[in-house]
Amino acid sequence: MAHNPAALGRQDGKTIVVTGANAGLGYFASEQLAAAGATVVMAARNEARGRAAMEAVRNTVPGADVRFQKLDLASLDSVRQAAEELAGLERIDALLANAGVIGSRELQFTDDGFELQFGTNHLGHFALVARLMPSLTHSRGRVVHVGSISHRWVRPDFRRAALPAKYSSYRSYALSKLAVMSFGFELAHRLDAAGAPASSVVAHPGYARKYFTPDRPGLRLSQPATRQQRLLFGLLAQGKDAGAWPLVHATAGDEVRNGDYWGPDGRFQLTGRPSVVAPQRHALERNAASRLIDLSEELTGVRLRV
C-alpha cells in the first residue's frame, strides 16, 4: 500500500528529529517528512549508515533538507551528548522517537547494564525526551512515541523488564513497547495538567514487513520472500513505507491532539491508513505509568521535568 506524503500538508520551516532514521520505518518517515518540506535531523547510531540514508533521501526527494545526528540509545552517555547538540538547534518542532531493537536471541545488555531491548527502546528514549523537554516546550513541540501491537500480550512488570532474572526475547520486546506507550500517555497527562505547550502522542505502524518494502539507492530495505510468504503476509502486513505513515501523521498532522494514539485503520490495526485507534486498557494505567517514570528516573539518573 503506497501513500502520498503530499497529503500531509506542507511542513516548511519545521525541524523534526527522527531516531533510528537510517533504516526501516525511520528511513521512510524521514523521507516522507522531507518530501513535505520539513528539515529532518536523521539520528542514528552508525554514522556511515546514517549518511548513506541521508543520500538516499536526497536522491529520492530533490532539495531535501536532511542533517545527521549521531545517537546510540543503548548508551546514556551518547544520549546526553546528542541531547546537548540537539538543544543547540534553533527549534525542535517534533521528535519522532522511532529507533528500537527488535529481538535478541540471547540476553544482551546496554552500555549501562540494562536489558538491551528495554534499555534501548524505552530507557534511552526516556532520557532523550527528558533532556529535550525544555527545547520541545519552547518550540511548542510534539513527541511521538512508537508503540507496537505487541503491547496487547503483556502486562506492566517494568523493573523485571529492565533487569530480568529470566529472559524471553518476545516478552522483553513487548514489555519495552508497553513501557514506551505507558510513558507516552502519562507524559500527555502531565503536559496537560501543567498547561505546557508541548504535546505527547503515541503511534504504531501496524504489521510492517520488509517483504513489501521498496529499496532506495544505496540502501537495502527490502527482503526477498517466497510465493507462500507473500500470500500469507499479503493478508496481514504492509511495507515499511506504508507502516511509517501513521508515525508521520502523528508527528506532523494538523488534527493530531495531545494523548492521541495513531495506527492503521484496517482489521486488527495491522494495515491501513492513519487513524486514531484504541490501545489496550492496561497501557493507560496511570499508577503503573507513574511507577515506570519513577523507575526510569532512578535507572537513567535523568529527571523528567514538565
Structure report:
This protein is of the alpha/beta class and 306 residues long. It has a single domain, classed as Rossmann fold (3-Layer(aba) Sandwich), CATH 3.40.50. Helix content is 42%, strand content 14%. The chain contains 9 helices and 10 strands. The strands form 2 sheets. The chain has an 8-stranded mixed sheet, with helices on both faces. A two-stranded parallel sheet has the order 7-8. It starts with 14 loop residues before the first strand and ends in a 6-residue tail after the last helix. The model has no long low-confidence stretch (mean pLDDT 92).
In short:
The chain is built from nine helices and ten strands. With 306 residues, the chain is α/β, with parallel strands linked by helices. It has an eight-stranded mixed beta sheet with strand order 3-2-1-4-5-6-9-10, sandwiched between helices. It has a two-stranded parallel sheet with strand order 7-8.
